[in-house]
Amino acid sequence: MSLIISAISRKGGAGKSSTSLNLCGAHLDADGGEVLLVDLDPQATLSKSLLGPEVVRQLRPHQTVAAVAERSKAAGDIVMQTSIPGLLLLPSSPDLQVPADAVLNLSGIDAPLVVIDTPPDTRDHATRCALLSSNAAISPTVPEPWGIQSVGEVQTLLMGAGIISNEHLIFTGFLVSMMQRAGIHAVCESTLRRLHGSQVYDAVVPHAVVFKEATAAGQPVTHYAPKSGGAKVARLVYQETCERIETALKRGAA
Prior knowledge:
Layout (H helix, E strand, L loop, with lengths): L2 E5 L8 H14 L5 E5 L5 H7 L1 H6 L6 H6 L4 H4 L1 E2 L5 E4 L22 E5 L7 H8 L3 E6 L3 H20 L5 E7 L6 H14 L12 H8 L4 H4 L4 H25 L1
Helix pairs in contact: 1-11
């Protein structure tokens, strides 16, 4: 059975797509086997990065994740191999629309890890679809006032998805992302940790150009610059995510 992780955030610019891609890269880096990246974001940022904008423009709805969400196709019917060995993709498209009651049909995929990138909007049907299809969720959060304000909306979304249809969903936590040396970032990170404690990752993702360069190059940072500080952080985030899921499962079995 695959471990399925959704990356969710209230607004754009939190590093959600980068986190999704780099979780995949760190998994491959750890020899964890194949990984499936599901692009449920209508912006199709990851699809364009991994396949090229022209390829994405030519895709018809039945060739994209839209068909998997509608369950007219299984993931195995439309999955695409990227240029990164072991990294599979269910591509998005700029006109992606997901039904309100959608759940992904991921049959035909044997990858031990599935990572789902979602729209930067907790109210979008695609975000709810991702959570109903997942075992776990991670929320990259920028340490700025709007980032802290969005935490409550993420928690409300998680409670709604869990109470209604996916009671076994594990929330791995809020990942401090795009961290800068600015004083406001230090204050907001401290506030986030004070208010939410263990729900905040120990690992912190800095605001570093290598992450944008890697995504633009269509590669996880672990592949683009394997010896960089960014690659080290990506591996730490992946390791902590796995540990948090393992801890939650043990707690549930106790």
